[in-house]
Amino acid sequence: MKEILSDASWSPYLVGIGIGIVSWLAFLFSNHPLGVSTAFAKTAGMIEKRFRGPQVAEKPYYRENKPAVDWEWMLVLGLLLGALTAAWLSGTIRWEWVPPMWAAKFGTNAALRLGVAVFGGICVGFGARWGCGCTSGHGISGTLQLVLSSWLAVICFFVGGVATAFLLYRAI
Amino acid sequence: MLKEIYSRKYLQFGLGLGFGFLFGFLLQKGRVCYYDVILGQLLLEDFTVLKVMLTATVTGMIGVYAMRSAGWVTLHKKAGSIGTSIPGPLIFGIGFATLGYCPGTAVGAVGHGALDALIGGVLGIMIGAGLYAALYPKLKQRVLNVGSFGDKTLIDILPVRNPWVVIVPVAILIVAFLVVLEMVGF
């Protein structure tokens, strides 16, 4: 048991089955599918409210998605703690500004990496909310319910992602 | 009994925290919270991400539809449209490759100390989501409802009564795809 918990690399099939079972539990005991990106929108709303006042909650988007801590927000907090615990058990926690693959191609300049990462993060947040979900909400919860909008969204995530990755790593 | 559980706010917060913990633990152990693994997938060299996602889909699908047949759970489907389900996800894809994480794996990557996931991921995604909230009224008016097709599932559009007539073949197809991936050496 101890060896399994300290192993840093589990079979992707085992991990996939585990995530599938977690989604059964979420449907059954919380009446909720797994999803992550809404929590980011709500946090953005909570921060904006702190700086610009309560009228922020009157924006049409935040009227439909109330900027407050909810089940999904707790899910994301738990996700952080779970990932931290897993990395701690396997002894893989390291502060790192630039991932190895990026460093091999574009060098170890942290400012360049962070600039591109922030641009990417903005696209991820903007695109996830535009498409009403991310690789969790559509990519796992939506596909497992066989929802057409989710399958279409996932295909577009990968079309955009694969094209951009090839441009970055193969065309430059 | 389940309705009673759903209505208890703090119990639900605790359950959300617990399910998130398991989800994050699994994502980290599956190594899908690593930039190199995600870019490896997008460059079609390492199929770890797809293996995790498709296995979770098959497992989840069978369990959730079985519980639905038993009347224990209801589905939570998202409606789509051409103006929603294509442009948004394509922009997401551009971000997926440049950030190198998706929202869940960015949070998970912070757990092993990835600072690009903290600043680009957690902060950047919040900025992007906030920008979207600002532009939402205009997009809603002009783009989001174009070509609306609702929250139909694959089962709804096929001329079948019994959902398992669709679920079983989909499960077989996904498993066959994964077997082929392994056979060709991914």
Describe, in plain words, how this protein is organized in 3D.
The complex is a heterodimer of chains A (172) and B (186). Chain A has 172 residues and is mainly alpha-helical. Chain A has a domain at 1-94. Chain A contains nine helices and no strands. In chain A, helix 8 runs antiparallel to helix 9 (148-171). Chain B has three domains: 1-30, no CATH class; 32-75 and 163-186; 78-151, no CATH class. In chain B, strands 1-2 form a two-stranded antiparallel sheet. The longest helix of chain B has 30 residues, at 115-144. Chain B is globular. At the A-B interface, helix 2, helix 3, helix 4, helix 5 and helix 6 of A face helix 1, helix 2, helix 3, helix 4 and strand 1 of B.
Outline of the structure:
Chain A is mainly α.
Radius of gyration of chain B, Cα only, in angstroms?
Answer: 19 Å
Taken from the alpha-carbon principal axes, the silhouette of chain B is: globular
Secondary-structure content class of chain A: mainly alpha
- How much strand content do the residues of chain B show? under 5%
Number of domains of chain B: 3
Which class do the helix and strand fractions of chain B yield? mainly alpha
Shape of chain A: globular
Q: C-alpha Rg of chain A, in Å?
A: 19 Å
Largest interface: A-B, 126 and 123 residues
Approximately how much beta-strand content do the residues of chain A carry? under 5%
Unreliable stretches of chain B (pLDDT < 50, length at least 5) are: none
Helix content of chain B: over 70%
| pLDDT averaged over residues of chain B | 97
